[in-house]
Backbone:
């Protein structure tokens, strides 16, 4: 399974359309294979991000707020979207791989994020 | 929670004050983490204040105002307020235009203690298509018949009172639109308008949705959840299909109407609400009262002001008006350029009795616009059932049998059957004509082969 997370520094980016960095991880049997790959977008664009998701053959997207049109598009492409996630992306990835992450989850690490994360 | 956050809450009890404001408000500490936010902001973001506390505000607000943290910090350091337009992604995945006002909060010694962010939803002033905003809501309701004109006259009167309203009328007459229009024209217009279908949820879930629950109230209640009554504070709550409200909840609703307070599910503390109630039903409530299925006291409490919407067949001259309106609208929406109707089509459409009222009329026009290949809607473009109308045998007593979605099966092309049924039929017809040749069928339908293949999969015709 291929998971893409929209990130801002060490956090899940609060908005899908304003994301300029994504992390892609491969996982199997509830384990992450190898090191996650980081991709920097040339500019934040929800449309370009959707195209990247399709091109990379992503199965699951973890993100913050996402507009209905993009959500529907990804659902149509049979991509699972776990949205409105708040917290450190590494924690989100771990929870997703373990099968616990749901839309709207506020991860425990979210309250420990200070200015250093920015 | 951080110690600074706790200290801040101890000093100032602000939640009571900010909950009375109809716009989103967030109070942040020096680290730009949320300390408090009001009900309106909870409604916008879908995150409760207790969940948001201690989390960086930009992750909760999901706003686009440049480098929001940087801007917030500037306000904190300089003390100069910031007023800027931007947007946020709401809990319903909508991009909502917002006017942000950020100001600093100073403590007794004049040092920066935190920030106050005020979020004003400006979507009502800035419609997406740039058209003039529809502030009164009445503009969308069409009608020149005497019955409708009488109703238009009555609506401002109803809007300017604060009493409960009961809207009755057959299905498809526009009860929801009228309720929203009354809210928009009332003094509560800047507060939420929340609609809930009383027949759509099971009893236990409906109680939790309406009145909220506290953590641990039942299995799965892992956190406090405000009910729709709390979220509609100072606004209007629209209870549609009130006739389907379970008896136990009718008692609770009656007590909210009388006392303006209620206990959330599993809660020990009463919550006060100031909400206007508009209820609607297509079922005969008096008959339900007589049969003991609806509380008499609640009926009289809701029936303070009553608005009965006329059926379309009773609205002289409105059918033609609506036919033209929907044709124009669907032409734009579907990119068609149909000029009008043939006289035969008009004759059939104006003499049809429309048991599904305006909703059915719209469906018929949508069907015709999709099917029509010429410049005018002809008799042949109309669905078959229009020509052999079944007698509308419903009487007031029999209307009770109508339950929303109660095992209704619809044949293709029947009222409300929808475009998918029509499309499925068109595909089958084209395939029949071409002896199953998909390339030729796609050509007839004016689609690419891939589109046809996708639609065949969608309708399981493969």
Residues:
């Amino acid at each position: 399974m291929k998971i893409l997370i929209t990130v801002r520094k060490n956090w899940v980016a609060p908005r899908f359309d304003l994301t300029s960095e994504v992390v892609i991880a491969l996982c199997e049997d509830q384990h992450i294979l190898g090191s996650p790959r980081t991709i920097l977008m040339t500019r934040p664009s929800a449309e370009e991000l959707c195209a990247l998701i399709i091109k990379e053959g992503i199965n699951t997207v973890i993100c913050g707020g996402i507009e209905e049109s993009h959500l529907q598009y990804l659902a149509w492409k049979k991509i699972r979207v776990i949205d409105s996630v708040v917290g450190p992306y590494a924690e989100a990835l771990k929870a997703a791989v373990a099968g616990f992450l749901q839309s709207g989850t506020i991860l425990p690490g979210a309250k420990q994020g200070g200015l250093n994360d920015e | 929670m951080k110690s600074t956050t706790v200290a801040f809450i101890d000093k100032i009890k602000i939640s009571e004050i900010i909950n009375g404001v109809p716009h989103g408000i967030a109070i942040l500490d020096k680290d730009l983490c949320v300390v408090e936010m009001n009900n309106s902001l909870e409604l916008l973001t879908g995150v409760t204040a207790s969940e948001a506390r201690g989390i960086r505000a930009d992750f909760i607000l999901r706003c686009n105002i440049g480098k929001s943290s940087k801007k917030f910090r500037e306000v904190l350091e300089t003390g100069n307020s910031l007023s800027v337009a931007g947007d946020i992604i709401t809990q319903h995945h909508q991009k909502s235009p917002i006017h942000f006002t950020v100001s600093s909060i100073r403590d007794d010694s004049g040092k920066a203690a935190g920030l106050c962010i005020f979020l004003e939803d400006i979507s009502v002033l800035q419609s997406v298509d740039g058209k003039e905003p529809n502030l009164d809501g009445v503009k969308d309701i069409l009608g020149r018949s005497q019955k409708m004109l009488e109703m238009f006259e009555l609506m401002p009167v109803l809007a300017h009172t604060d009493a409960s309203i009961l809207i009755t009328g057959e299905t498809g007459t526009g009860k929801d639109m009228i309720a929203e229009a009354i809210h928009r024209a009332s003094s509560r217009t800047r507060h939420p308008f929340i609609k809930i279908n009383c027949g759509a949820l099971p009893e236990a879930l409906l109680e939790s949705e309406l009145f909220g629950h506290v953590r641990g109230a039942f299995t799965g209640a892992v956190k406090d959840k405000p009910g729709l009554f709390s979220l509609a504070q100072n606004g209007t709550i629209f209870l549609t299909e009130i006739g389907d409200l379970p008896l136990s909840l009718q008692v609770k609703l009656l007590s909210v109407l009388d006392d303006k307070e209620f206990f959330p599910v599993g809660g020990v503390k009463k919550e006060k609400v100031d909400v206007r109630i508009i209820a609607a039903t297509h079922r005969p409530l008096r008959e339900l009262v007589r049969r003991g299925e609806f509380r008499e006291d609640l009926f009289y409490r809701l029936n303070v002001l009553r608005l009965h919407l006329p059926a379309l067949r009773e609205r002289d001259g409105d059918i033609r008006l609506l036919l033209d309106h929907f044709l124009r609208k669907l032409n734009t929406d579907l990119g068609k350029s149909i000029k009008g109707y043939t006289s035969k089509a008009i004759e059939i459409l104006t003499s049809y009795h429309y048991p599904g009222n305006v909703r059915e009329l719209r469906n018929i026009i949508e069907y015709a616009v999709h099917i029509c290949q010429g410049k005018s809607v002809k008799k042949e473009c109309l669905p078959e059932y229009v020509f052999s109308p079944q007698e509308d045998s419903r009487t007031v007593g029999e209307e009770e049998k109508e339950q929303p979605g109660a095992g209704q099966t619809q044949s293709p092309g029947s009222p409300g059957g929808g475009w998918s049924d029509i499309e499925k039929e068109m595909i089958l017809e084209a395939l029949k004509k071409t002896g199953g040749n998909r390339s030729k069928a796609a050509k007839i339908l004016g689609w690419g082969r891939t589109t046809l293949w996708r639609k065949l999969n969608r309708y399981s015709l493969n």
Helices of chain A lie at 46-55, 68-76, 89-97. Chain A has a mean pLDDT of 90. The interface with chain B takes residues 11, 14-18, 64-68, 71, 83-84, 86, 104, 106, 110-111, 113-115, 118 of chain A (CB under 8 Å). The CA atoms of residues 5 and 104 of chain A lie 15 Å apart.
